[in-house]
Structure formats: C-alpha cells, structure tokens
Amino acid sequence: MSALRLVAVLVLAVVAAVSLVVSPASAQDRETPYWATLRFDKVNLRVGPSREYRIDWVYQRKGLPVKVVRIREGWRLVEDAEGTMGWISESQLSRSRGALIVGEGLADMREGPDPASGLRWRAEPGVVGQLQRCRDNWCEIDVAGRTGWVFADRLWGDEEPAGG
C-alpha cells in the first residue's frame, strides 16, 4: 500500500510541476482586448512594463474596470474609462467583470431590464459595481450587495471587446 501511495504522490508532484510551467505561458496567450478589474484599493499605473518604470498614476478604487489591450511578460497595458493608458502588473488585476456608471446625472437602477420596471435606486457617475449580466441593451450590476438594471449606455465596461 505504501508503494501505491508513493506513486500517487509522485504523480501529483509531476502534475503540479507541469502546471506551474504551463500556466504562466498560457496566461500570456490570452487574446486581447479583454476586461479586468483592479484587485486592490491601491494600484500603480506605470509608463512601462516593469517596476523600473516610473509610476504615472495611482488608482485608489478596488473593482474599477479596465480594458487590457496588450500583454507583456507579466504586465498588462490597460485603458481606463477616460482613455488613460499605462502598464499594471498582472498580479494587481482580477478577471472579474466590473462596470462604471458614466454620463451626466443620476442613473436609474431598475428592477428589470425595462424602463417601465420599478425604480430601485439611483447611482451617481463614478459608482463602480460588479457586472452580473446584460441583455436587450440593459445590464444588471451589483453595488455593495444592491443590484439593479441600468441602461447599458450609462456603463463603461459592459461591452464585449473584440477578441475578449
């Protein structure tokens, strides 16, 4: 029985070693552009793809959606809602989808994807939420546990980027 256990441990070790080698390479193969969100409350945007490059901007908004437009050795060239571009370490990003309320005035958050459905609440431009799903030009977002449907034109981060 101990020989069988040793073989099982060796097989698991080989699988783990192979996954460590293959996983980073496959992560680099992801087709761009795609959406990501900031993983932490404070994330540095750099002018180049390395810690040697100066910090151009510091985001202080966990969950803020960014569009990843290029990949380079553990770094991601991202674009934010204002069109600012720079490099962020891949470790600072999450693959979860987020959405940012944009436009003028308050955005109605409805019970369903219809302008006639009940009003749940209103969100100001700049509010960040988790993107749940979209249909018929409406998207459901979750902002700190409160969900609602908002007209897609009021969101940045909802569309499917080419290749994403």
Automatic annotation (TrEMBL):
Gene3D superfamilies: SH3 Domains (2.30.30.40)
Claim: Signal is one of the keywords in the record: yes
InterPro entries in UniProt: DUF1058 (IPR010466)
Signal peptide annotation: 1-27
Keyword Signal on entry: yes
Keywords attached to this entry: Signal
Name this protein carries in UniProt: SH3b domain-containing protein
Organism: Erythrobacter litoralis
